[in-house]
Amino acid sequence: MGTVKKIPMRQCIGCGEMKNKRELFRILRTTENEIFLDATGRKNGRGAYLCGNTDCLKRAVKSKGLERALKVPIPAEVYESLEKEIEKLAEK
User: Fold this and answer.
1) Any idea what the CATH number is for the domain that residue 44 is in?
2) In the chain, % of residues over pLDDT 90
3) Sequence-separated contacts (24+) of 68-75 with Cβ below 8 Å
4) Does position 1 have pLDDT exceeding 70, yes or no?
């Protein structure tokens, strides 16, 4: 008998569904309050997870879920850049 490897699960802040960590995108806030998409999922900082579609990002913006998760107010320009990056990565 082999050991069963535990699969890390995370909750999307847009739709609230629990999914495999690798299926989600990680939004990161660094100690300098920079906010960006962490493609590797391993950088240091406070993170929040989103599904690979823009609908979840729009829900997170509307409910201010991303601001609550990262504990910092987020300007509109950051949301626009995140949306463009998610669209690029979702196409792949």
Assistant:
1) 3.30.1230.10
2) 77
3) 69/13, 69/27, 70/27, 70/29, 70/35, 70/46, 71/29, 71/46, 72/29, 72/33, 72/35, 74/35
4) no
The one-letter amino acid code at 67 reads: E
Quick check: 33 and 72 in contact, CB under 8 A? yes
Helices 76-91 and 54-62 pack at an angle, to 10 degrees, of 160
Residues 56, 14 contacting (CB under 8 angstroms): yes
* β-bridge pairing 35-38 and 25-29: antiparallel
4-43, pLDDT tens digit by residue?
Answer: 889 999 999 999 999 999 999 999 999 999 999 998 889 9
CA angle, corner 16, sides to 14 and 19, nearest 5?
A: 105
> What total of structural domains would you count in the chain?
1
Is residue 16 situated within a structural domain? yes
CA-nearest of 92, 6, 86, 89 to 50 is: 86
